[in-house]
Amino acid sequence: MMTNLFLSATLTCAMTVTATFATAETWDVSLPWGPSEYHVGNAERFAEAVEEATGGELSLKIHAGGALGVRPTETVRALEDGIVPMGETAAMMNVGDLPLLGLDGIPFLFDDESDVERYYQLIRPVWEEALETRNQKLLYSVPWPTQLIFTNRKIESLDDFEGLAVRTMDTNTSNLAESLGMLPLIMGSADVIPALATGKLDAVMTSGTTAVAQQLWEFLDYGYVTNHMVSFNLMSVNMDYWNELAPETQQTVLDLAATMEPEFWEVARQEHDMRMKQLEENGLEVSVPSPDMLAAMRDATASLEQNLVASTGADAERVLNAYHAED
């Protein structure tokens, strides 16, 4: 009798352990950024918080540097199809799949950080709805630091941009480059260094964070803090995977995302000054264009906002009208 009771208890315990392990989930998370970039650090912090808060019920395995084979321009499709359960990309790099994701790429839309925050509150619900149509849920979004144009020649007027082959990230930044007289080449971060090394590029549009990670001072001499746009990264999850989670686990993840997103924004704020210092220490000349030069750049790209609205429809117009109404 005692033996039967012991066996029964043992089997019950084993079944409980098996059930516990059966409900545990491990999701691969794809990021195209190199492991030293702060977006990867943010994702790693988020993964640690999720595992701790869910008691191991959900684990996130971070794969940086495009290790899972998902290019930044393919992330929306990869998440939609469940090729990866979760992933991060720059919104504007997926405009081919969702044009509304390009609404952060309007040139010279923001004067300061408060403008960026105000715009984000308007655009986030639109992005959430757009991503849901592609079978994914937005968890958090974090901007890149101030954008620069890095060149191999000194730029003192719009004429100096003429003919420069420049790395761009999407259609919007390509249109901006063309408006300034440059020759745009859309490419992901991983392709920039080979293109510079072979002389295919004369200039790069990117943040100081990426410039340091890629050691652009090895190829380019000047960095101009144009602040021509703000690029947002989106961390999203495939809805099929999401719906397999228990409701309480879903809420835990959402609460963590909401709590940690402002912390991740603070990391972004600190990045710019730190990276500018590193660029200068390595011999790259960093400067802010003159007010006249910035005004000329704004004038040259002024038509791009309306062109974008015309190509993306009523949601874009509604967001931009609301944003400009508060200017």
Can I get a quick summary?
With 327 residues, the protein is an alpha/beta fold. The protein contains 12 helices and 11 strands.
Topology (SSEs and partners):
Layout: H1 2-23, E1 25-30, H2 38-53, E2 58-63, H3 75-80, E3 86-90, H4 113-132, E4 136-143, E5 147-151, E6 165-168, H5 171-179, E7 183-186, H6 189-197, E8 203-207, H7 208-213, E9 222-224, E10 232-238, H8 239-243, H9 247-281, E11 285-287, H10 291-300, H11 304-312, H12 314-325
Parallel strand pairs: 1-2, 1-3, 6-7, 6-8, 9-11
Antiparallel strand pairs: 3-10, 4-10, 5-8, 5-9
General description of the model:
The chain is α/β, with parallel strands linked by helices and 327 residues long. The chain has a single domain, classed as D-Maltodextrin-Binding Protein, domain 2 (3-Layer(aba) Sandwich). It is built from twelve helices and eleven strands. The chain has helices at residues 2-23, 38-53, 75-80, 113-132, 171-179, 189-197, 208-213, 239-243, 247-281, 291-300, 304-312, 314-325; strands at 25-30, 58-63, 86-90, 136-143, 147-151, 165-168, 183-186, 203-207, 222-224, 232-238, 285-287. Strands 7-6-8-5-9-11 form a six-stranded mixed sheet, sandwiched between helices. Helix 2 links the parallel strand 1 and strand 2. Helix 11 crosses helix 12. The N and C termini lie far apart (81 Å). Residues 1-22 have low confidence and may be disordered. This is C4-dicarboxylate-binding periplasmic protein. One of its GO terms (cellular component) is periplasmic space. It comes from Celeribacter indicus. Keywords: Periplasm, Signal. Residues 1-24 form the signal peptide.
